[in-house]
Design brief:
Length: about 140
């Protein structure tokens, strides 16, 4: 198996709420809306989409119940420190829960994190220390 993710699919409790959060709140563009799942324009990266939580759990053979930290964090690396602050503000305005306000990080970078309406954690980061990072923008 290669170190590659073909797509990222999030199980959400309310499809319409999630669509509003990502499109109206964060400005994402929908590529396909199949009713039971939605995929966004990926700009060349692994596609991100969501599926009803119950249906996705059934599809992969697990329970839709869960609480606490799942161990999954979605990262978003940017080229400018100011962009971290801009995205954090956009997310908060859209209804995200700010988990860690943007600030200096112990390893020398700058970043913060938020949770979307379903509790999925997004970690935003910037670092001037390298040029080969997996930049999202």
């Amino acid at each position: 198996m290669k170190a590659h993710v073909s797509s990222i699919l999030l199980g959400v409790r309310d499809l319409e709420r999630s669509k509003r959060f990502y499109t109206e709140g964060l400005g994402w563009k929908i590529k396909n809306d199949w009713g039971v799942s939605v995929f966004f324009e990926s700009d060349g990266a692994s596609p991100v989409g969501f599926y009803g939580r119950e249906g996705l759990a059934e599809q992969v053979g697990t329970s839709p119940e869960g609480s606490g930290f799942s161990g999954l964090v979605l990262t978003y690396v940017v080229r400018e420190q100011a962009r971290v602050d801009e995205i954090m503000a956009e997310a908060e305005k859209a209804g995200a829960t700010i988990l860690k306000p943007a600030g200096d990080l112990p390893w020398g970078g700058y970043g913060g994190s938020f949770a979307d309406p379903d509790g999925y954690i997004w970690s935003l980061g910037y670092s001037a220390q390298g040029t080969d990072q997996p930049y999202a923008e």
